[in-house]
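User: Fold this; tokens only.

Assistant: Input:
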Amino acid sequence: MTKVRAFHIQRWPATLLLFSLLGAACSQSGPEAKSNPATTGGKSANGGTPSTGGATPTGGATSTGGSLSTGGTNSAGGVTLTGGITSTGGSASMGGSASMGGSASTGGSITTGGTPPNGGSLSTGGAISTGGTLPNGGAVATGGSAGGVTGGRDAGVTDGGGVSGTGGVAGTGGTPGACPAVSEFTTWPSGKAPDEVGKLAVENFKPRTSETYGGDGYAWTFGYVGSLQFTDTTGDTTNNDFLVGKFSCTQTGPDNSTSASVDTRAFGDLPLEIFIENGTAACKTLGLLRADAQWAKTTSDGITSDARYWIDDMYMITSLQVLAYRATKDTKYLDRAAKTMIAYIAVLQQNNDTKTDGLFWHTKQSKAYWGRANGWVASGMTELLLDLPTGDSRTKIMAAYKKQMDGLLQNQIASGTDVGAWRQVVDRTDAKPEMSCTAMFTFALVSGVRNGWLTDPKYATAAANGWKALANRTSNTGMLSQVCPGTGQANAGDLASQQKFYMDIAFQANDRHGEGPLFWAATALLRKDCPGLR
């Protein structure tokens, strides 16, 4: 079938035509509970965009409604117009939206008077006129209407309709204005930027595409999904095509019976992500079979019988259901995930007004604050909040998310070789730094800052330091070291013995459990949309 890549439509010809038309008038100026990485919110628009959310560094004032004097272009398609082309009410370019105060999409006109929300000032130009609304309730901040949004990773993703204006795609009920500009996410040590590290990680992962699912197949799935999301976000069509081509959606996959576990159901994340990126119908069918089988049997309180009350489940169950929502726009999948998340929060999140306030036990039995267990739920809440509409469920989950983020900041390593990282047992200062949980916490923090959930600068600083710790532990061949392999829960006993169980696990380099989270963190830093804004 013809490959559909909704997010990488080139718009240069239309943009050049616009400039030529305006030229005459304008002046130039048991396994461990396996959770899988949800897709971090959808697809990328046109590949590389400026790292601060699309705004050009200097904006660009217009003298009398003319074109920008110092605009800027995205690296792979679409012109970033900070302040927009005024031309005394000229229409915006053919659907190409600017991410920070740029032109109105699909023909939205510019009126007179005022200033663009985040771009350059206009001396006699005007603010961008009232924009349209997204079909699921998200108001477009500037410019025309968007049609049939499918939850893309950057602004400009549609399913048979127009292109949204500034600030990305809304989930159900979202309002994407311009994404917050985050200076902490713009400058990195040489060779340690997320695009550089992510490219190395992709090359390292590619040989794994031929591996079998196995006992830790959930981790393999998350690495595969993460590599697809990273290559899609960065516009790396060559590697994205390679990755898609190595997976067959005509296969049956691992156990999906009524007695299957969250570990094997996690397999469904991969075909759903491929469908979201490429529209392959067989992949959608394969993934939904698992998402729906997960709710074939439920408990008395209405959640899946797959639930074990291991906090790891809150990535594995959550990501599968969230991806099913992104593939179908059927809100039953969000409802399932939210109901289950709230039930787990009530049982496993701790409220104690100490340094561990807001952290999660691994299981009902194992009361240590194991790093990756906390990473699973942090990542799961993040993925769910990117799509969950405003309402009681969102309010409850957001409160738990923020409470955990505050607990994590109290326990981040502040000095030494692994400054910025977190430990294998989060609150034990004698535990070793562990990189899979560090990647998960970084992903959660970056997403919170980028989507306006965490506004204090301390969160951006913590997220940036987390990324630097990860980058320092990633080799020049893309291998992440200092990773805990899969494990079960600690035996019943006193807290010290349970903490020791996790602290005694030998770490590995290039373990599957670190690959997906590394991609999630890199992709979150590179995304230019913010679908979790409400």
